[in-house]
Amino acid sequence: MTQPLSYQEIQEIAPSIFTTEPSEKVSDKYSFIPTVQVLEDMNKLGWEPYQVAQRKGRNGSHPYSKHMIRLRNNNLGMIGDSLPELVLTNSHDGRNAFNLHAGVFRLVCANGLVIADQMFASQRIKHQWYDMDYVRAITNEVVEKIPEITSALQSFNEVELSEAQRYSLARKAIKVRWTKGNDYVDVKDILKSTRVEDEGNSLWSTFNVLQEKLLKGGLVYKLPKGRQQTVRSLTNIDEQVRVNKGLWELAESYV
Asked: Which of 28, 40, 64, 215 is the S-S candidate for 23 at Cβ 3.0 to 4.6 Å?
């Protein structure tokens, strides 16, 4: 997505962003803050929505469902082949505060990465109050972190991994996606790049190959008795954030 999303496009993908009242199950202490209000306030600070998602249950989407918005600021420069982002998650069912995470969007493969908490701790905005100055402060914190993020990405590019290290990284990455492990996924397959830009043994290239395979899915592997299984795309918002952060933290351990 090279242009910010319109409200109509957001409405079609994640209508819960525009919910005008909270779930009836929330307590009296719950102060309702529509996500669209935060979106509008972020826009005043130069942040625009480029990607949105909404949690879907067994019965489809719910007006109070958890949702995610990835925002970019065109006033900020590139970090190598990537753009800095803010990742906002929220719901209107009383179960979640607003959460803001630092993110990176890699243009070459349209992968949205979320930086580990060691790089930028996620910020929470509780529903009991809302303050524009606080939102401004935490967005400014992202801007202040850009040199540190740039340094980290440069380090990822400069580190060349041996084959043993690449296999070790891949095996650990599998356990990030499947916490109990997955003995059937072939490490060779998960390390195989699907584009020229991701070829090579650098930590950055290897990280991006693993990140795409484990989040976007599509990898086919064999189960006992010859049955085939395809890795599903990770669509759960909480799991996307967890796996993204886990992979980033894992990559940092190889610098």
From this structure: 64
Amino acid making up residue 40? E
Rounded CA separation 149/157 (Å) = 13
pLDDT digits (tens, 9 = 90+) for 99-123: 888 888 887 667 777 766 566 667 7
Q: Model pTM greater than 0.85?
A: no
DSSP 7-23: HHHHHHH-GGGG--S--
Cβ–Cβ < 8 Å for 105, 83: yes
Higher pLDDT, 122 or 78: 78
The predicted model gives 162-167 an average pLDDT of 96
> What's the pLDDT score for residue 32?
67
DSSP class of residue 118 equals T
Backbone dihedral angles phi then psi of residue 51, each to the nearest 5 degrees: -155, 135
- Measure the CA–CA gap between 8 and 245, rounded to whole angstroms: 30
| Residue 2 burial (CB count, 10 A) | 6
Q: What is the mean pLDDT of residues 177-187?
A: 89
* pLDDT band at residue 62 under the 50/70/90 scheme: low
Residue 221 DSSP SS3: strand
* Mean of pLDDT values over 145-157: 87
The alpha carbon dihedral of 30, 35, 40, 41 has a sign of positive
Q: Do residues 84 and 103 lie in contact, with contact meaning Cβ atoms separated by under 8 Å?
A: yes
